[in-house]
Design a protein that fits this description.
Order of helices and strands: EEEEEEEEEEEH
Shape: globular
CATH class: Mainly Beta
Distance between the termini: 48 Å
Structural class: mainly beta
Low-confidence stretches: none
Helix content: under 10%
CATH superfamily: YVTN repeat-like/Quinoprotein amine dehydrogenase
Number of helices: 1
Largest sheet: 4 strands, antiparallel
Number of strands: 11
Strand order of the largest sheet: 1-2-3-4
Strand content: 35-45%
CATH topology: Methylamine Dehydrogenase, Chain H
Mean pLDDT: 92
CATH architecture: 7 Propeller
């Protein structure tokens, strides 16, 4: 009987609340509102830590990452508990687009992209479903 075994790991020093993998990149979302990008060809190698927090205001210290979805090979869609959805370049750390409108403060709500990446959909704590259009044209 073949047994699975751990082949690589990396201590983030924080709770990991979301993960997404798109070969050869792994993106981990943290409870602090940051994401960590790893190269994982043979082992996990930390490439960059990206801040997904507001610069000022009540959520400047960051809120939990609730979802990560790859838009393409270098861009991820990050949902956080500050009611924001961010599109971030995983190679440079650049914030490409920040969306708001839905409410996501307490639950593990994550946004999802349509199969053609033209729309972004998210549930909300206010009982509504939100759809943003023309995402591909804004990134």
């Amino acid at each position: 009987m073949n047994q699975s075994k751990v082949i690589a790991w990396h201590d983030t020093k924080e709770y990991v609340t979301a993960l997404s993998y798109n070969k050869p990149v792994l993106v981990a979302g943290l409870v602090s509102g940051d994401i960590v990008v790893y190269s994982c060809e043979d082992y996990l190698k930390k490439k960059i830590k990206i801040n997904c927090k507001n610069r000022t205001g009540v959520y400047a210290k960051g809120r939990k990452v609730t979802g990560i979805e790859f838009y393409d090979e270098t861009v991820v869609c990050v949902t956080t508990n500050d009611s924001r959805i961010r599109f971030v370049n995983t190679q440079t750390g650049e914030l490409l687009l920040k969306l708001k409108g839905h409410k996501n403060l307490d639950y593990l709500i994550r946004a999802v992209l349509s199969s053609d990446n033209k729309f972004l959909l998210s549930a909300s704590e206010d009982g509504n479903c939100y759809i943003w259009s023309n995402i591909h044209a804004r990134i």
